[in-house]
Amino acid sequence: MNRLDGVTKAYTNFELTIDIELENEITAVIGPSGSGKSTLLEVISGFETPDSGSVFLDDRALNGVPPEQRNIGMVFQRPALFPHLSVRENIEYGAAISDDEIRDLCELLEIDELLEADRSPETLSGGEKRRVSVARAIVTDPDALLLDEPTTGLDEPIRRRLKYELRRVLADLDIPCIYVTHDQNEASVVADSVVVMRHGTVLQQGGYQELLESPRNEFVADFVGIENLIRGEIRETDSGRTVVDTGVAWVKPDRTNLDNGDVSKSEVCIGILPESVTITENARGDGGRRNQTQSHQSDGTSINSIDCIVERVISERGSKTVFLDCGLSETFKAVVTSGVTVNKGDDVTVEFDGSDVVVI
Amino acid sequence: MTRAGEINSTRTGLSSVFDGDYTVFGLLGAVLAVYLLYPFVTFFIGAQGDGIAVADFTRPEVISAARYSLTTAPISTALATAFGVPLAYFLSRSEFRGKLFVDSLVILPLVLPPVVGGVMLLTGFGSFTPVGQVANSLGLTLTDSYIGIIFAQTFVASPFVVITSRAGFDSVEEYERASRSLGKGPVETFFRVSVPLASGHILAGIALTFARSIGEFGATMMTAYNPHTMPTQIWVTFISRGVYATLPIVAVLVILGLAVVVGIRYSGKTIGVRE
After folding, report:
1. Disulfide engineering: A74 pairs with which of A203, A285, B150, B181, CB 3.0-4.6 Å?
2. Is A137 on the interface with B (CB under 8 A)?
3. What is this structure's pTM?
4. Is A84 within 8 Å of chain B by CB?
5. A212 in helix, strand or coil?
6. Where are the strands (E) in B89-141, listed by range?
7. How far apart are CA A189 and CA B68, in angstroms?
């Protein structure tokens, strides 16, 4: 078993406190700057000594073992390719391998052309440097691989392609790979499970879908992409249904039973993914009120739908992010396909399925 | 005007200066450049007019001074490098109580007048000090001797190799980490990664140390007035025969100085961390 057992490391204004188990899979560590992600890697790799606790790799305690004897590969945020060595010499630095092995590895990472003519790392593009640094780390046949924001600083198209390729390569290694990133989207693409960190502690660990469906707190929800966080009060409607009253709409989550004690507090926060929202334009001439639909109660209060005014629309590749004024304290966000016609000032209704609502 | 507007206008003003109109900077810089060049021109023209001949370059005292300087400075440089590079690496990589003190100690000879360094050395290694007496009993003279010259040069010049090497080692730490993560121990990493990548800085430090050693005067005057090194001989010649009579030794020192400067510029362009 791979685990960090009661590991602590104190700095002047920051303390790392970690207790996690890691499977032989890709684990993304996400969190804002200063949350302790890189420090975590330093402790595992042996470049930082914990004040207390132990790091176990395959049940082998690593306390006191210097970095070079841990057999843990590292891919750094800056590739740190040795500039005085060629690309081939960089890859071969950690272990002497046969020409066939090095060629296979480089073909896997699509860098085989870089082996020719003693190419200097200086001549490589940002994406090529990252691939070479991954090859250099893998060639030593490590027992674990740590990647510290390996796509940071790359152009978006290169970054997009690299994350898919890293997923493909890392998944075949069958060793614990810890992939630090601040990008939740990248974490969802690359990793099998996700660790969310803040202020040096682990807030939640689990599969990305698990985090989406049951985030432990608002920070985790926001960080995994549930950007619409709305506070409300649990109450019973006249028709006997238990809902969350947000002040502008009633929300009825499907996955959380509000009646049977799943939720102990009367005030809760609900989260809705911007991608799980649909937008329909309200009919003209109804004074800004949407037509009566199935999602309205007899008293006129809507369930799982909110009337809003479009504040602004940002078009991205294949989608639009719509910022909506729904009368809530925060702007409501919806991500719709680029085919949906929606403009600033439009009077619209956002609707969402109860199965897409999480109660935090 | 809004604050954003003010910032904008400031940026525009600065960028217009840096976008091509460097006249003011050029004029101010030229004053210093002329000031640096002028004494060289007057000296060499003056020396020519004063009738300094080729024969003056082969006078016994000139040959002797050159011999002492050119044999002591390499030894001082070697000693400073042998102990200074490890110290630079240790300071770059280690945190310890008293590090600030050691840091300051390394810089101190640079900021103190060299003659003060000479005073310190005399009180530590003079003939009547315990160390000096032990050395005397072993047949070694630590002042007014070949060793005294080396002591003075090493004391004054060693900070150059320590400071520049340390800057080099500071700049390659991430490569060392990469090497360690690839299974290489600290010693192998030092020789395969740290030294090659910091070599530009180290060589520049060695060159500066050599230049400072060969030009050392203040501390050497105190610890080893005899035998005369080139700077000491310049002083002696100046006192006895006038300023232009110093030309032969001055010329040698200027040529050596130029060689060091060109060497540093060249090594800075060809060696070092390039990523």
Report:
1. B181
2. yes
3. 0.79
4. yes
5. helix
6. none
7. 71
